[in-house]
Amino acid sequence: MAESLKDNNLLVDIPTVTLSIDSQSLTVTKGTTVLEAARSIGINIPTFCWHPKLKSVGACRMCYVEVEKMGKLQVSCMLEAMDGMVVHTDSDQVRQGRKAVIEFILLNHPLDCPTCDKGGECDLQNLTFAHGFDDSRFDFRKNRFIDDDMTTTFDDKKIGPEIILNRNRCILCYKCVRANKEIFGEYDLGAYERGNITEINCAPGDQVDNPFSGNLVEICPVGALTNNDWRYKIRVWLTKTTPSICNFTSSGTNINFYKEDHKNHIFRVTSRPNDSIDDGWLPDITRYGYQIINSPDRLKTPLIKKEGKQVEATWTEAIDYISKRCNDIKEKLGGVCIGGLVSPHMDNKSLYSFSKMIRTTFKSNNIDFRGDYRMLPDVPDSSFGVLRSQPFNISDIDSSDVIISFGSDMIREHPNEYLRIRKAYNKESAKIYSITPYSVKNADVANLELIYNPGTEETVINGICLAAIEEGLTDNPLAKDYLKKVTPTSLREASKICSVDEDALKSVAHSLVTGRKITFLAGELVTRSRERDNISDSILNLNKLFSISNKGQIAILSRYANSKGAEKLGLLPEPAKQIKEKLKSLWGEYSECPPNNTDSMIALIKKEEIKGLFIFGSNPMMLYPDYEFVKAALEKIDFLVVADMFESATTELADVVLPVASWAEYNGDYINLEGVLQTANQAIKPLYQSKPVYEICQMINKKFENNGFDEKTLEKEISEILDVESILAFDNEFKEVAPIEEENSTKFTIPMYIIDDPHHSGHLTEKSQSLIYFSGEAYIEMSQQLADKYEISDGDSVRVETEVGKVIVPAKISEILENSVVLIPRNFPSTPVTSLFMRKKRVDRVKLTKVTD
After folding, report:
1. Which of the residues 52, 71, 586, 843 has an alpha carbon 20 to 30 A from that of 545?
2. Closest CA to 356 of 564, 661, 586
3. Which segments of 688-744 does DSSP mark as H helices, in order?
C-alpha cells in the first residue's frame, strides 16, 4: 500500500502497512514500530527505556507484546509493524512477561521510596503498583554500588553542579546517556563496565555540567538522577502546575511551574513539550532561571532619592514624585526632552503601555527596546530591518537539507534552535555549515566550519556568491548585475580578505544551488555589529542570487523573549510605516518629533537635550557596549526612573526605583522569534510590592489624566496592531557591498567578543543560585594556543586592557576555540566588562597580560 503525500512541491509515494492491535485495524507508515502504532490509536504500552525523541534500544523489555505466529513475546519498541500483523498488548502472557521484567528490575533496586525524591512521579513505582507487587521471592542481600570515599547513608554522589546520582536506583534504561549523546551532543555522562555491574556515571575526571544537563534528571524514569533545585523541598503531590513559557530565550520554550499556593512559592520548572517550538527539551537557563523569582535580593518597595540617598517610599509617593518631576520638564522644555528604554523581556501589554505612555503622555519618540546594541539603524526598512521581518519557522529546520548558521554562537544565543540543527544532523541527510569568526560548539554537527577574519562578514557572504559565479552555478545576466555592485569581484581576493579557503566557499555555494529546502540563520554577530546594514546588504544579495527564501527561509534571529513582539508593537523609535499609521489611527495622535534610538538618546542626555528618562527592565550600565558613555550620561541626567526586579548599577543612579513583578506573577502574552503568540500564565501572586510594568504605566498616566490604559482598551489595541502585516518586501535589485576597513591599534591586537555564558542570559540570571553553581564569575576564554603564547594556565588571573578600560579576570582555556580570539561574558555585575568596549568600534581588540603578583 502507498499514500501520496506532497513534500516540497513533489509528490512522494509513502509506503504503508496495515495491522491489527487489540482487535483494532490501523494503517501506518512503513517503518513505524508496533509501540508507536499502538500509541497512535490510544493504546498505552508501558516502557522505561523508550522515548519518542530517542532511537529505540530495547533495553528494559517492559514493552512486551504478543504477536500471533511469533513464538515468543516481542519487544514492541524495536519491532517494525508489518502487513497482516496481529498484536495483543494485554494478554495473560504479556502481563506475565512484564511482571517478570519488573521483578528482575527490583532484584537489586533499593526499597527506599519514602526517602526517594522521585516518589509520586516514578515510572517504576507506578508500574510496580499497576502489576500488583507487594512482596519479593528473594531474600539475599542486594547488590550495592558505593565508592570508597562515600559516607552518605543513601549512596548519593554529586556528579555535577546540580545533579546527584544514586546508582543503586538506576534501572539501566540508558535514557540519560542516549539523550546526552544523541540530542545534546555531550559526552560527560556514560555507561561503564558490563553486565550486572554496569553503572551510569560521569566521565572520569569530568562532571555533568553541559548547558542541557537538567534534561537528564527529568528524563530519568526513577530516582537515579535528581537535582539540588527540587531535592527534598516538597513532595510532588503537594504542588500544582501552571503552564507558562521561558522568559530567557526567544524560542518561547513551553514550561510548567510547580508551585504551592499556600506559600506563594515556585519550586521547580519542567518541560511542557511543544514539538513545533521546543521538542520537549529545556536549556538549563530555562530550567533553573526561574529561581530569580524567589530570590531574597528582589526589590521590595519603591525607592526615592532624598538628599543623595535612596529611601523606601510608598507607591503613591513614588508616582506623585514622578508626576511632579515630569510635569516640570514638560512645562519648561516639552515632552520631547523625555525618553524611554524598555526591556524586550516584557510582555506585550507592558511593552505597548510603555510605548503609548512615551508617545502620547510625553509626546516623544525617544523610545527603544534595544539597550545592548551599538550604533543602531535609524529606519525600520533598512536592509537589516527587511531581513529581521522575514517569516521563520523553528520546526522547518528539522526537514531542511541545507542549514547555514552565520555569525551565531548558537548554544549561547539560541540553544533550542541548536538542538533542531542537531536533529537534522541525526537524520544524516542535511548539509550543515557554521560560519563564524571563532570556533563554536555548535559546529560539532557541521559538515564544514568556516572561520573568517573578525570584521569581514560581508566579504565571506560575497565570497560565497563569487564562488557560485566562478563555478558557473548562476545565470550569466544575474552574475553580471551582481558583479557591478560588489567589491571585490574575484573569489581569490575575497578569500584572501576573509581568510576562508576558496574550496570551502565553493562547497557552500554548491550546496545552496543543489539544496531543496534551505535554512539560513544569522545571529548576534550580525545584530551586534556596527556594520549590520552592510552585512545585511550582502545577505540580501546572497538571497537574490540563490533564491534562498523561495526554497526555504532566511532570517536574522531575534535574541530576547519578546524582541519580536516589541518590533510588531512599534517600539522602535521609528516604527514601520504601516504600524505607525495604525498607532496614529488608534490614538488619534502621533508625535512628529524626531525619533531617537538608544545611542542617540544617550548622546542627547550628555548634551543635556534629554532631561528625563524611564528605564524599565533594562540595565544599560551593565549591558550597553560602552560603559563610560552610558555612565557619563546617566550621572548627568536631571531625572531618572528605573523599574527592575533587582538593584543594579543602573538603579543606583536613579531618582526613583520601582519594583517590577516577574513574568510568573501575572498573565502576559509574548511573541517568540517565529512570530507565535503565547501566554505565560500567572503562577503566584506578585511578591513584596512589585507590579507589572503595564500597571506602573497605568498609575503614571492616571496622574497625567491620560485615559486609555485600562486592560480592555490595551488588549483591543494590541490585537489590532498585531494584525498589521509586518513583513517587509525584498528589494529586487542587488545592493552595493564593499569591505569596510577599520583602523586597528598596534598595541591592542587580539579581537574580543562579548558573549553570554552558556548558563546565563543578560543581567538577571546571576540571581539564580543553581546557575551560579555552573558559572559564578566573569572570565576570559581563549584557545590553548593563545594561552601558551602568554604562558597562561587555566584559572590564572589575566589583565585585559583596551583603549578605554581594563579588568582582571581568571582565564578559561577553551576546548573549542582555536584561533587568536578571546571571549568575555557580560553576565556578572561585579566585573563591568562593558568598560572594555567602545560603541563605534566594529571589532574590539585587547592586550593580555598575565598577573603574577
Report:
1. 843
2. 586
3. 693-703, 711-722
